[in-house]
Amino acid sequence: MATAYDRNRELKAFDETKSGVKGLAAAGVSKIPEFFIQPPEQGDLTLLPVEIPVIDLTGVETDAAVREEVVKKVKSALETIGFFQVVNHGIPTEVLDEMLEGVRRFNEADVEVKKNYYTRDVSKKVRFNTNFDLYQAPAANWRDTMLIAMAPESPMPDELPAECRDITFKYVDYIKKLGVTLFELLSEALGLKPSYLTDIECNKGLTVLCHYYPPCPEPHLTVGTTKHADSDFFTVLLQDSIGGLQVLYESHWIDVLPLHGALVINIGDLLQLISNDKLKSVQHRVLANSTGPRASVACFFSTHLNPTCNRLYGPIKELITEDNPPRYKETTVRDFTLYYNGKGLDGRSALDYFSVKL
Asked: Domain limits at 253?
């Protein structure tokens, strides 16, 4: 007699191997475990041939006219598609390439090396696992991730794997500098003084997520990352040449095509909350693929679960008018993140929970 499928038991058995999705791929599985199979999407979600805006940052710090034009482009992109790419951002291409190679080196290292970092203890500044929401989400994603909390307090260098240690610290130094520029542009796009978002410490936290998507034997049954919106203020994404990132736009998917040397920028839920819906946190996903492995590095500007960061965030008072009352309740980043993580990537917006009935 066939035994009933015990999902929790299967998830636990997989998790306890600590070898991740890469372990399944290395074992040569031809069928994906049942808990990776995604439910079918609802509605007409066909692909649209719309291009994500590419914004050149050359001269943005030195030429007032250029800066004004860039701010207009940023504002337009984030009020419509919700994503844009930046080029000439100040980070050398060789640094970008080496960061991606560091992610590959770690994920392709001996499984015994990776097991040293495999944990679900959220107090750890460096943790490696498969899906932060493995036990909460409706279905698992075909993806392994190493999370590194780099700010406000960074880990000690020896807490990071040797395979990506030096390049991660180097890359993050560049990202922090770029973050200052981007927060200024976002502040100006909101009609605020350039330092506004940094003055309220939106740049205080930085978390790096190093994603690795092994080739999948049945990519039509699962995804690399489920449809979701990010929980942070904004994200800087470095993706390799494989592709697969898609943005939901006017009820259709559009591809974010890889552009060597570019970085992808998108707004997170917390910036939509404090901008009172002026800037949009847009749902996106990553497809599974059979050609991989795909590597990406997502830098999230947010303090996430840091227990020492207790500032309350609500709709910015300068953006509130009689015709545009507050749409959201105040919250700490920690409380927002706890709710977001608790529900997992289930396709629903975490913002709904914090909204005010108008």
From this structure: 43-301+324-354
Please say whether the beta carbons of 111 and 78 come within 8 A: no
- Are the CB atoms for 51 and 161 separated by under 8 Å? no
Residue 212 lies in a domain: yes
For residue 38 the two structure tokens come to 């995604």
For residue 265, which of 352, 156, 171, 185 has the smallest C-alpha distance? 185
Asked if residue 154 belongs to a domain, the reply is: yes
Tell me the average confidence (pLDDT) per consecutive run of 10 residues in the chain, 358 residues long: 74 97 97 94 73 97 98 94 97 98 98 97 96 94 98 96 98 98 98 98 97 97 96 98 94 94 98 96 95 96 94 97 96 96 90 89
Max Cα–Cα distance, the chain, nearest Å? 74
Residue for token pair 């500098």: 177
Domain membership of residue 73 (yes or no) is yes
Q: Is 29 inside a domain boundary?
A: no
Residue-by-residue DSSP string for 50-112: -PPPEEE-TTTTT-HHHHHHHHHHHHHHHHTTSEEEEES-S--HHHHHHHHHHHHHHHTS-HH
Total domain count, the chain: 1
- pTM score, two decimals? 0.95
Secondary structure class of 233 (helix, strand, coil):
coil
**How confident is the model over 216-256, as pLDDT tens digits?**
999 999 999 999 999 999 999 999 999 999 999 988 999 99
Can you say whether the dihedral through the CA atoms of 331, 193, 60, 204 is positive or negative?
Answer: negative
Cα separation, 279 vs 74, whole angstroms:
10
Handedness of CA 235, 260, 228, 210 (dihedral sign): negative
CATH at 134: 2.60.120.330
